[in-house]
Amino acid sequence: MDVSIHSYAKNRRGKIVRAGLLLLCAIPLLFVVTGCRYTAAPADLLQKPAISPEKQAIVAAIEKYLPDYSKLMLPFREDHMEAIRLLDVDGDGTKEAIVSYYNEYSSPELMVFKYTSGLWRPWVLVQQPLARLIDWLKIEDLDKDGQLEIMIGWIGAFDSPNMLEIYSFSSKPVRNEAGKLMLKPLESIPYSYGDTGDINDDGQLELAIISEIGTNQEMALPEFHLTIYTWENGRMQELYTENLYNDVNNYDRLIIGKISSRHRGIILEASTGAHSTYSSMYVWEKNKLRLVYPDRSKDLEGLNGTPSMSKDINNDGILELQWAREAPGYPDISYAESKWLNEWMQWDGKDGFVKVKEEFTDYRYGLQLRIPEQWMGRYTLHNSEEQYAFVGIDYWNEQKNLTAELATLYAVPHKLWESVESEWKQQGRSYHQLLADSGNVFAVSFVKEAPAEWPEEERQAFSEMEQVETDFVSTLKVLND
Question: Are 55 and 4 in contact (CB under 8 A)?
Fold first, then answer.
């Protein structure tokens, strides 16, 4: 962790105080941004982060120039996880410091500092008086002309709309009412969500914006639109607009990139209920978008029972869709007790999808289980009631209605592991200690044989599944994000 992700508060005398790292503000923010799992490292394992001399000098400048009672902050969607960014924004060969913070009125602002004559001094301010939060901050050279643009998604206060504003460091600053130099936005458009990416493979970044019309109470449902823009000669130019599926709560995510070995496109994800998600994939072809998923002619509805997070799961440079399905064989259990399997599907560039990975993730412990090939089509998962167990794995044959316990995964608090292990040994239980993470020891216990009354064919299938025990640890991955 770096000084850049800490929050600081400044008092009337101009001193920066930690205020316990402002945990009441910083910790919830980090959970929103990073998706941290519920378990965390014990406090005695955490260490005070080192602060480089360069960052110490910036902090000293912040102490001198930020308004009283201000504090550093992170946008909700933050790629770099830092409130202090070092970038050469004006192309002069020297990095500037871009600082995001709440001012004395709890309004979000950016201040850009220049390093001149061995000192950090404030240069320009970026502010939106009607905003209460920064949703998104991205600094990119959109048209590859050597000049950086800054994109800020402002969350409006009270009845003010959310606005996406684009600023350029090549534009001339003006003075505000307080006499401070500030950048004026070159573009301001209402928005719900936005991101950048090269969707048409022209080597430049496009800007994809989701907007909504009719969110007041007079209309039953808002209308959502996706617009692709290019940045040319300091202005936004509309490239394409697509009407989106409207029966959602809100579009929460979009990613641009390769969606097959030969195509580029965009994936959108929206919330549709307390837990469910709607996903769609569009391919860019013939200078427009074409929907390839969902495909209702193939009963692909685009709905997931859990929040989805499509991405390049196998690091081949191609984005995969995350399809979630409830583990079979337990139809009468509650949603809270259900186990969900993730199928990562890659578009074949024609008319189908290929599964590249199947896994189960327990977000409480940040542990992911990659389903072995030997289990495909003949396993299920359930919620185990055994102490320290977090998932039970069954052999499952739907056609013959045969189910039997195959293995159980455990998460034992590290401080209790010795006593639990001693008890297991006394019981003669077969188990393997797998790994330790976030204060827990993970272990697995396999059942050695199928029920004796089963047919030989089923007993052989069970044995094949049990054989993964020797290398089971290789199927596990700790998620540190």
Answer: yes
